[in-house]
Amino acid sequence: MTVQYTDKPIPRPALWGIIYRSSGSLWEGVKEEKFLIQKCKDCGKILHPPRPMCPACHSTEQEYVEASGKGKIYSYVTYNKSPHKAFKAPYSVILVELDEGPRVISNTVDVKPEEIEIGMPVEIAYEKIDDELTLYKFKKAG
Amino acid sequence: MTSIKDMTAIAGIGLTEYSKGTERTEWSLASEAIKLAADDAGIKVKDIDGLVKDIDDGWDCSYVQKTLGIDNLLYSSESHWGTSSMLNVVTAVASGTANNVVYYRSRKGATTTRRSPSDYRVAKETLDDSISILRIDFYEPYGLATPQGCAAMLQQRYMHEYGITPEQMAGVIIGISEYGAKNPLALYTDKPVTMDEYLNSEMTVAPLRDIDCAPGVDAGIAILVTRTEMAKDLQQTPAVIMSAAQGAAIEGEFLTGYNQEKMTDFPETMNMAEELYRVAGITAKDINVAQLDDRFAPLVPMQAEALGLCGKGEGAAFCGAKSLPINTAGGSIGEGFMDSNRIVEAVRQVRGTSTSQIDNAEIILYAAGAGGPADGLIIRK
Q1: For chain B, which residues make up each domain, given as ranges?
Q2: How far is B164 from chain A (nearest CA, A)?
Q3: Which CATH architecture has domain B8-114+214-380?
Q4: What's the number of domains chain A is made of?
Q5: pTM of the full predicted structure?
Q6: Which structural domain, as residue segments, surrounds residue A119?
Q7: Within an 8 Å CB–CB cutoff, is residue A49 touching chain B?
Q8: How large is the ipTM?
């Protein structure tokens, strides 16, 4: 089910993107509604989560390519009690396997809780939280 | 190449009181547990010359050294996340680096929610690309904000892949709680969990049930290891360490190895088990009793499969059938979350002092770190 937020600040990845430097470009892209996935500049391996060296060829050069934004639900959980003051329970967290291979944690948009199932095709949808933060989420594939 | 097989033994165990709330500090609990382990073995505290702490422990070896009055430490180190790293202890002793090395763990799990100094803060200060930061950058913004949620994600996929029913999952905790009910130290299991109770229990993060989660406990535990020939002259029956191993795997993360090719396989545990059995010179079939990681009960069947105790997808039925005794003191589900309480129970099985003593307890397996960096031990009389 779609997350309903309270008026409390949600945990902010963009701030941490500066710290976990490898993921900074990904979040910059999300602000512009582009899902940029890290790719090794030398051997072309998709790297997610982002990282400073390619485990296949040990290159330290990366580039970002726009992902298709399509995938399937690989697993999910439903929080019936909120673990954080920003989120109103109940809400679901999904693990999406992107067509490009990597799996990413996210939430659904406009999907009824009883509709969520493993294998369900989904596509990316952006939710603007405020001027500084946009999150990538997933809706039912059209 | 020399082998660590049978070179070392657990000669002493120390346990403070278990409680759901103490005024004492973790420093105090750790110090007492280590003293009790020396007393149990029958050695002087001053003769401890190596200390290994859990990475989640707040109190560095040098603090504990101050309370114990140990003149010098020939060896000190700490565990990998989610493991107890008995391998550090064993290799320190087997190599001759130190003679009496103690692994200790002290935790006020019932009364505090602190994060240890070696957690996120250090990564922040050093601008490190620490894997821990993944939680903050990629999981917490979506409300995946607790270890329970991280484990439930693995459980959901596992139940889907093999068609595991909630009734089958119940078998795991029913079996463990039956042992816990017989153990007076298991504060959290007065009586065995029933099927009805399980199926009607709350799910804070579905499909994980609250009853599946090991509660926190305030306690200190210490495990003293020395050379086997030395242990034979001490006052307890030595628990001879046939093997100790750790395991890691690419794309591994603590409870969130979601980008591993098949995340429910627990590749870290598979790697660990292969080495563990190789060093011991046995196979999974030789294990008589197992003490498995039950921070979250649904991790137990996945772990049993990764350890080769049963086939893929058979873990829940295997636990329910009770053909192999698992967590004979009630595990962390019964005694509260402290990995090392399952090492203590493995030692009790060797000594014949368990509240659920298994008749043929000759070879006992201990494993930790399910769903992340893993470690394990195999001990015998």
Answers
A1: 8-114+214-380
A2: 14
A3: 3-Layer(aba) Sandwich (3.40)
A4: 1
A5: 0.93
A6: 4-140
A7: yes
A8: 0.92
